Amino acid sequence: MATVQSGLYQEAKEELISGSEAVGIACALADVDVITAYPIRPYDTVMQYVSRLKADGAFDCDFIVAESEHSQFEIVKHASAVGARTFSGSSGVGWFYAFEAITVTAGLRMPVVAMVGNRALDDPGAFGVEHNDAMAVRDLGWHLYWVATAQEALDMALMAWRVAEDPRVLLPFALSCDGSFLTHSQAIVQVPSQDQVKKFLPPYTRGELQLHPNNPITIAPQVNEDWLMEIRRQTDEAMRRTSAVIIEAYDEFKEIFGRGDPSPFIEEYMCEDAEIILVGMGTLAMPTRVAVRRMREAGKKVGFLRIKFFRPFATEEIQNALRGAKGVAVIDRDYSYGSPQYGGVLFHELRSALYPLEERPLMLNFIAGLGGREVKVTDVNDMVDTTQKAIDTGKIEQTTTWVSVRE
Amino acid sequence: MATRAVEVVYRGIFQRTLARNIVRNIVFAARKDGKIGTAFGRYSDSPERNGIPAKQFAIVADTALELEESLAVYEATAVDVTINVDDTLCKGLESWAWYGLQPINELTKPGGTLIVTSRQDADSLIEDIHQKDTAYDLAIIPSTVSFSGLWVYKDDHTDMRVLGALCKVCPELVSLEAMLETIQEQTGSDTKVASLQRAHDRTATRPVEPGEGNSETPFSFDMPGWKTMEEGLVIRAIGEGGGFRGGETGYTPTRNETFKKWSTRSMRPVINFDTCIKCTLCWLQCPDTCFDVTPDGLYDANMEACCGCGVCESVCPVPDCVTMVGEPEFNDNNSQWDAWTADKDGYKKWMTVLVEKQKSETRTHGFHHVGGYAEEINTTEEA
Ligand code: SF4
Ligand code: SF4
Q1: Which of A207, A259, B139, B306 has minimal Cβ neighbours within 10 Å of its Cβ?
Q2: Strand order in A143-146's β-sheet?
Q3: Which CATH architecture has domain B4-208?
């Protein structure tokens, strides 16, 4: 398989790079074997950077520009079957165009790692971030993670191969990166050394499942109703097993690289003793944390819970984080038309997760930042005010609010 | 405890690498001063179009916590320094995402600085720049505009000179020492370091008082809400148009009221009505339907519609009948045909001077110089 040719990442170093570039560097550090690409904004920034790294000799890989997203994902699926470490990605409707290949990747237990540069679904043609694109894999057996910073993009890409390729798991991993705010903004990132990464990330081996002339097997037969439930149940069990693998890997990650949060699944920001907790994903964390900090300074008991892993959903941890709150304000950068509460996907998942609690907090949903509209600190303040009003009156006037939409 | 921001206003593609060099080096240098920063382009400008106004930002803070508020935004709300690397943008910015016309100094903080690379003097620039309620400083780096293409970079030290000027006008953002060290490290070039130092030493500022400058109200429009917008992503066609300026003869097309183009262009066509043979080519080929047909059968380019692509100049079969001229020469968008009709001799004199002057300038307007400065490379190679 591919070998590292240059000394580009022999030493740990600091770089000024975007989230996409950070994922590109992770590809070099992880010594990925097969990378497929097809241009669509904002994902294209990662393919540009990967091809440049390869051209610069940072690493060697088969870099294949496919003729469509569908082939892009078919190629990595097949490469994964023969034991190649893989990376691919897309955005918005490009990701949707690949969907047939994306669904079978999980079913066949191929640990493909993909970056979804979150983008609004056309039409109208728009480039800005919206989470509905990546959300579409939530029911398919993919890991689904939302990144908040360029540093986290690099770190979690390394985690992604480690977890996805673990023989106990073998499920694909989607790394969701907000278009523009992550894919196009450059920040200072600590890049680890090749040696550190080697220590963390063992080579990918499929063992008995590897498609190879020495191991004659057939993959993906046609089945009838007498087989399918058992196959689905296997995928379910693998997804259930992955939580423990994630924890194990993250502990080791923190030890080797010297950074990380207490939990791999969620980030609790000033949640302790908070009466109102805001919940959101991705770069929504930036304005929300600033707003929370300022409100805390003014004596208001608020906190922010960032959901990092959407799949697997860390129900118990999330219950514990939100249990003491009087009000929970969920910010969705996505929307589910005609859903039970006419609200966002995250909101409905959280409502379901909190249902078993004996004392349930009041829950409000805020649809914000669709198509990349900026979510401002003042927007977050308004959300807290609305939630406070519901707590004070004991009554929710409106479950779902569209933030800063022109009437 | 402070956050400081810089914006670089530039022409898409032609000056993209220039803008990127400037913002990245600011963040690198600030790092040496013990600060932390971020660099990003305005996402709505992207994918960049040739020559269309665009922006990149560098934001620097003392701590990562302070920087957080400036992450996950498209555009800073206020900047300490606005850097404009094409003086034609002093007339304001229209991005292709169409927000109306944004004055060049809109984000410049009270007491902040606007740095412009230009051959014009301060008074001439201020005539174009919209007035502000608060005072700020203007610094001019004397130079011709630095244009190149997507794959080539015109390494004429404009980036170094801008950074040198920046360290002078806003040392709180980044120190000259840190910047010198950064450039030495990044480029290993003593001449670049020298350019930086020299620009720093020579930069002087001129205060601009509140109310000084162009008094025009910048063009803006109201965007509809979801209740008033037509459903199904439908955009209605506009009417056909009719006689020249509503008259019986000639022709003026109906134009979209909200889709106007002024600072989008860096050059505009100047027409010699005396030599025009009325062949209709400019009228046919103009991608933006700019030409009004006058009652006497001539073609008058409407400057609310022209994006400055230069197609009309290229297709006109008569030598020097259509000449693209740099925008700094104009302070209004009035009809050239009106001026010619009123005073043919005066028009000819005005036009001759402009056309002669234009021949000595190098400026890219997108169509003619596709790919940047290929012609310059050719002449250099031939020499
Ligand atoms: S420069 Fe381009 S847009 Fe302007 S009048 Fe000529 S052809 Fe039309
Ligand atoms: S292309 Fe030149 S000659 Fe022909 S109508 Fe236009 S200005 Fe006149």
Answers
A1: A207
A2: A62-65, A34-37, A86-90, A113-118, A173-178, A143-146, A309-311
A3: 3-Layer(aba) Sandwich (3.40)
Contacts of A214 (CB under 8 A, 6+ apart): none
ipTM value: 0.93
Contact state of A178 with B72 under an 8 Å Cβ cutoff: yes
Q: What is the pLDDT of residues A113-144, one digit of tens each?
A: 999 999 999 999 889 999 999 999 999 999 99
State the residue for tokens 């690397």: B85
Q: Which residues contact B191 (CB under 8 A, 6 or more apart)?
A: B157
Q: A170-184, B83-97, B205-219: which range is least confident on average?
A: B83-97
Judged against a pLDDT cut of 60, whether residue A373 lies above it is answered with yes
Unique residue bearing structure tokens 């968008």: B333
Ligand nearest the Cα of residue B315 is 2
Range of the domain at A109: 3-257
B38 close contact with A: CB closer than 8 A: yes
pLDDT digits 0-9 by tens, B246-298: 999 999 999 988 888 888 888 899 999 999 999 999 999 999 999 999 999 99
Number of domains in chain A: 2
Residue appearing with tokens 């030599």? B275
For ligand 2, whether the C-beta of B284 sits within 6 Å is: no
- CATH code for the domain in which residue A338 is found: 3.40.50.920
Q: How confident is the model at residue B340 (pLDDT cuts 50, 70, 90)?
A: very high
B374 band by pLDDT with thresholds 50, 70 and 90? low
Contact A5, A57 (CB under 8 A): yes
Beta carbon of B278 within 6 Å of any ligand 2 atom: yes
Altogether, the residues listed in chain A come to a count of 407
Of A206, A228, A257, the domain-final residue: A257
Question: Chain A contacts of B73, Cβ < 8 Å?
Answer: 181, 374
Query: Can you tell me which residue has the tokens 């502000």?
Result: B132
Structurally, what CATH architecture does the domain formed by B244-256+267-359 represent?
A: 2-Layer Sandwich (3.30)
* Tokens representing residue A266 in the block: 């969620």
Any residues with CB less than 8 A from the CB of B117 and at least 6 apart, and which? B84, B85, B86, B87, B140, B141, B142, B143, B145, B146, B158, B161, B162
Radius of gyration of chain A, Cα coordinates, nearest whole angstrom: 21
Predicted model pTM: 0.93
Which residues does chain B have within 8 Å of residue A41's beta carbon, measured at their own beta carbons?
Answer: 46-47
* Integer Cα distance of A41 and B47 in angstroms: 9
Asked if B137 contacts B208 with a C-beta cutoff of 8 angstroms, the reply is: yes
Q: What is the pLDDT of residues B66-82, one digit of tens each?
A: 999 888 888 889 999 99
Both A94 and A208 in one domain: the answer is yes
Residues with Cβ within 8 Å of residue A96, at least 6 apart in sequence: A121, A133, A136
Ligand 1 pocket test: pick from B285, B288, B325 the residue with the most ligand atoms within 8 Å of its Cβ: B288
- Residue A284: its H or E element: none
Residue B381 host element (H or E): helix B374-382
Does any CB of chain A come closer than 8 Å to the CB of residue B226? yes
Is residue A221 domain-resident?
yes
For A52, the 3-state DSSP assignment is helix
User: At residue A332, what are phi and psi to the nearest 5 degrees?
Assistant: -110, 130
Q: How far is A22 from chain B (nearest CA, A)?
A: 14
The answer to whether residue B223 neighbours chain A at the CB level (below 8 Å) is yes
- On whether residue A234 sits in a domain, the answer given is yes
A156 inside domain: yes
Q: Whose CA is nearest to atom 2 of ligand 1?
A: B309
Asked whether residue A407 is domain-assigned, the answer is no
Sole residue written with tokens 């999330």: A318
Q: Which helix (H) or strand (E) holds B113?
A: strand B108-118
Pick the closest to residue A405 from A367, A378, A377, A372 (CA basis). A367
